[in-house]
Design goal:
The chain is of the alpha+beta class and about 200 residues long. The chain has helices spanning about 40-45, 45-60, 95-100, 105-125, 160-165, 180-185, 190-195, and strands spanning about 5-15, 20-25, 30-35, 70-75, 85-90, 90-95, 130, 140, 150, 155-160. The chain is globular, with a radius of gyration of 17 Å.
């Protein structure tokens, strides 16, 4: 792994269960994002955690959309290594970062980005996938401000999997951005992503 990927930016981003590093794939001569499971979780890694990471990889692999980063590979830990997802690097910043630094967005910008994300969600929903964590920090705007990407499918599930699960007393997602049904731990569908 170390010979194929050269680190460019260690911890370029952070997620709920790990970090995102920016690296260069020296074989294919392109930048990639490497999502690495937080080492703190490695010690207490349950089969469910492993399944979640694998599910995210499979979910991303089933999606092919211009506004969802493509997954390239998944690396399982060997010799006490780390779980890693390797996917398309999107040069830019999150909507959260944009709001925090620039404040106001033009209606023209918002309309374009909103269209990008709606299209990405429509594609995911047609593939039976519910994201479950739509929020400003999971939307990346390209540096040239031309496009917006939907990222972090870590807690996404297929609708068919949700129907088999018993509703949870402990909702999954980011409370400030969850639908009332999601907050109550009720059964979900694609409309919860739209909320």
């Amino acid at each position: 792994m170390n010979t194929r990927y050269q680190m460019i930016d260690f911890a370029a981003g952070e997620g709920g269960f790990g970090r995102i590093d920016k690296a260069k794939d020296v074989r294919l001569e392109r930048n990639v994002a490497i999502k690495i499971l937080d080492p703190l979780f490695k010690e207490s890694l349950s089969p469910q955690d492993t399944e979640r990471f694998l599910r995210e990889a499979k979910t991303l692999a089933s999606l092919s959309h211009p506004h969802i980063p493509a997954i390239y590979d998944m690396v399982f830990p060997e010799n006490n290594g780390e779980f890693k997802l390797i996917f398309e690097w999107i040069e830019g910043f999150t909507v959260r970062q944009f709001i925090d630094t620039k404040g106001v967005m033009s209606l023209e910008q918002v309309s374009k980005w909103f269209g990008n994300i709606c299209s990405a969600l429509e594609h995911a929903h047609h593939k039976d996938i519910i994201h479950r964590d739509i929020k400003p920090s999971n939307l990346i705007i390209t540096t040239n401000l031309e496009a917006c990407y939907l990222v972090d499918f870590g807690i996404s599930l297929r609708q068919s999997d949700l129907e088999r699960l018993t509703p949870s007393r402990y909702p999954v997602g980011t409370p400030g951005y969850m639908s009332p049904e999601q907050l109550r731990g009720e059964e979900l569908d694609a409309s919860n992503d739209i909320y």
